[in-house]
Design brief:
The protein is α+β, with helices and mostly antiparallel strands and 513 residues long. The chain has eleven helices and ten strands. Strands 3, 4, 5, 6, 7, 9 and 10 form a seven-stranded antiparallel β-sheet that branches. The longest helix has 69 residues. The protein starts with a helix and ends in a 14-residue tail after the last helix. The model has no long low-confidence stretch (mean pLDDT 85).
């Protein structure tokens, strides 16, 4: 038993247990303390979700949330996981960029200290200490200037000895690694990538808002459709009862009664299916808003307002080229590829660096806080030249940069064509939705006339109940089609406005203007 415990202890001390043992876990308390000690608390992501403004408790104890469109937009911007991750990714990118910006300024090196004590048999104990600090400044063309101070001391054999030295060193590459472009590439690339991400993030923010509007109106449309299904079911039930009465008087056949009852069954099935589909869509919407799925949800009625815009295709193309991030950043991305090509070509050059250093050394003193008179001065000049023998990796990297540049140049010449095609496609989609809305209005009027005529003829024995059922089904389809066309036209209009940079929101991310 002792051997087992000893083996387990030895394995634990040597780190052999690397599975899911509890002693590897970090406690919640320590984690909270580590998070609280962060230098930028304003950038620490919140784990809790924003709560809805209107929560209601029902008589049966269940809780439900009542939402209007503005509240849904607020919750989406506050709780949507994908959107929050994009925002936090932008913060991480900014932190990395600030590190690169800081690197352009003089940087203090770490303060290094060391000390040893040696005590050997039949010998006097000796000690030694050293400390140093330095500062480095990057030069615009790839070199650097470093100033440093080092201090050392020793005790033990003979008198104590303390001395210090100052040094200044300059290094400047002339071939590989030389030049403004190579030296500033990391910072320039980070600055531009951050700008690209920020512009794309603003575009995605609007995309999220449009998606919320689309889902919100879609849910209202489903509720409207359910209302239409309920009215249609009531009409079919009334028609079935009427068919049974008329069958008793010999005015219709038994087949007509069975047909009416079958349509009632089909309507009940369609209504039940529509209600379940609404429940699934509501649960998905709750997740997007950061709400628990078990929470009930009631949406306030929001009128879908639509007014046809006066913007032409030519005007939309011009606005898209001015505001759309794909085209606005296209020239910059081409320049990024050109810089990468120049840097890859520089990487194939030999290495030739010039160095110069000047050092001041003090005389050895027996006391730590002595005067430390200068005793020596040393100037050193040097050159470092090296030729790459194995150029395999460098030549391949160069060729990859050539291919990447050619691809970027091709994409740059194609991005305008894609932009124009995208604007034209959005215009066509919007016009189709507007036409669908007009046709749906006409279809509702025609379906209402057909339903009234079928019912009138049926009561007078001039039509069968199948004619009435078909007319009512056509009216239901026309009403549902109009709501769908209206919402589709509004969403497509918002997407066109977003693509052309004409979509704005208020400071709280409220309703889209």
């Amino acid at each position: 038993m002792r051997r087992i415990w000893a083996g387990a202890l030895l394995a634990g001390l040597t780190g052999c247990m690397t599975g899911f043992e509890e002693f590897h876990d970090i406690s919640d308390r320590r984690t909270d303390r580590l998070v609280g000690e962060a230098d930028f608390p304003e950038m620490v992501p919140k784990t809790g979700a924003a709560t809805p403004a209107r929560l209601e408790t029902l008589p049966d104890g269940r809780t439900q949330v009542r939402l209007d469109l503005a509240e849904a937009l607020r919750l989406a911007l506050s709780n949507n996981v994908a959107f929050l991750r994009d925002a936090e990714g932008l913060d991480v990118q900014l932190l990395s960029l600030e590190v690169l910006r800081h690197g352009e300024w003089p940087l203090l090196s770490e303060v290094t200290t060391s000390g040893t004590w040696t005590d050997a048999k039949d010998a006097r104990g000796t000690g030694s200490q050293s400390a140093g600090i330095g500062i480095t400044q990057k030069l615009p063309l790839g070199g650097s200037v470093t100033a440093a101070y080092a201090h050392s001391g020793s005790q033990g054999v003979g008198p104590n000895a303390y001395s210090g030295s100052w040094s200044v060193a300059v290094t400047q590459p002339l071939l590989r690694g030389a030049g403004w472009t190579v030296n500033k590439e990391g910072l320039i690339s980070a600055e531009r990538n951050f700008e690209y991400s920020r512009g794309t993030f603003a575009f995605r923010r609007q995309s999220l808002q449009i998606a919320v509007v689309e889902v919100y109106f879609g849910l209202l449309q489903q509720e409207t459709n359910i209302g239409n299904f309920e009215r249609n079911l009531e009409n079919l039930r009334r028609q079935a009862r009427r068919a049974q009465i008329r069958e008793q008087f010999g005015q219709v056949t038994r087949t007509d009664v069975f047909r009416s009852q079958l349509e009632v069954t089909r309507a009940e099935s369609a209504l039940a299916q529509a209600r379940e589909q609404l429940k699934l869509a509501q649960d998905a919407f709750k997740l997007d808003l950061g709400l628990p799925p078990e929470l009930g949800m009631v949406l306030d009625s929001e009128p879908v307002e639509y007014a046809a815009g006066a913007m032409t295709v030519e005007q939309a193309v011009a606005l898209a080229m001015e505001h759309n991030p794909d085209w606005r950043y296209a020239p910059h991305r081409l320049q990024d590829a050109r810089r990468a090509l120049a840097i890859a070509a520089n990487g194939t050059l030999p290495k030739f660096d010039l160095t110069a250093s000047y050092t001041w050394g003090t005389a050895s003193e027996s006391h730590l806080f002595a005067g430390y008179d200068l005793e020596s001065r040393t100037l050193a000049l040097g050159a470092d030249l090296s030729f790459p023998v194995d150029r395999f990796a460098a030549s391949r990297d160069y060729q990859k940069a050539v291919i990447a540049y050619r691809q970027a140049a091709r994409d740059y010449h194609r991005v305008r064509d894609r932009l124009v095609a995208e604007v034209q496609g959005r215009f066509i989609t919007l016009r189709q939705a507007e036409l669908g809305m007009q046709f749906a209005e006409r279809a509702i009027a025609d379906a209402e006339k057909a339903a009234r005529l079928a019912d009138f003829n049926y009561q007078r024995g001039l039509a069968t109940n199948q004619d009435v059922l078909d007319a009512q089904a056509g009216l239901l389809e026309a009403r549902n089609g109009y709501q769908q066309a209206l919402v589709s036209a509004r969403i497509q209009q918002l997407r066109l406005l977003q693509f052309t940079g004409q979509l704005t929101t208020d400071a709280e991310g409220g309703w889209l203007k």
